[in-house]
Amino acid sequence: PKPVFASRDELGGLTRAFADMTAQLAEARTMVQHSVAEVEGARANLQTILDNLTAGVIVFDRHGAIETVNPGATRILRLPLSAYRGRRLEDVPGLQGFAREVTSRFEAQAASRDPGERNQWQEAFELQTSPERDKLTLLVRGAEMPADERLMVFDDITEVVSAQRAQAWSEVARR
Q1: Which of 30, 85, 94, 112 has the maximal Cβ count within 10 Å?
Q2: What is the pLDDT of residues 25-56, one digit of tens each?
Q3: Is the whole model's pTM more than 0.90, yes or no?
Q4: Which of 98, 144, 145, 143 has the alpha carbon at shortest distance from 122?
Q5: DSSP readout, 105-135?
Q6: pLDDT tens for each residue of 119-169
Q7: 59 phi/psi in degrees, rounded to 5
């Protein structure tokens, strides 16, 4: 607290105005600190959620570089995606074709967007990250985000597709 002079002259008025200004600055600083704490808490919550999702999540910045990767993406693709932050998906060995298809799908969505339509798409992709690994079937969902960022969420549906094929062949064999 600053002592405020009760005088009615210019010096007293200036002192009161200065005291009011410092009180407003202190209040603004407290509000900023509170807001920063809330943002950091929300960021920590979001990171915890991303870390515990079984789906893969990759966020691309406005230039198409990988900005965020969750452990689910690394587990599904069996590639060290976190090491490629700041680089494009095309730079990840084994993902060049997949990256081209995903980029093409994002561009097609942006070009055919109708007013009021949601800025998202969903498609299944077959992917083989290396010759010694089995093919993966991924269900990929893409969405446009604010600031021209892009979100890609994907699940490994290889076993589901395999089970559907086996069931279809057993039905054919039964008939």
Answers
A1: 94
A2: 999 999 999 999 999 998 888 888 888 888 99
A3: no
A4: 143
A5: HHHHHHHTPPTT--SEEEEEEEE-SSTTSPP
A6: 789 999 988 777 777 888 999 999 998 888 999 999 998 888 778 888 888
A7: -110, 130
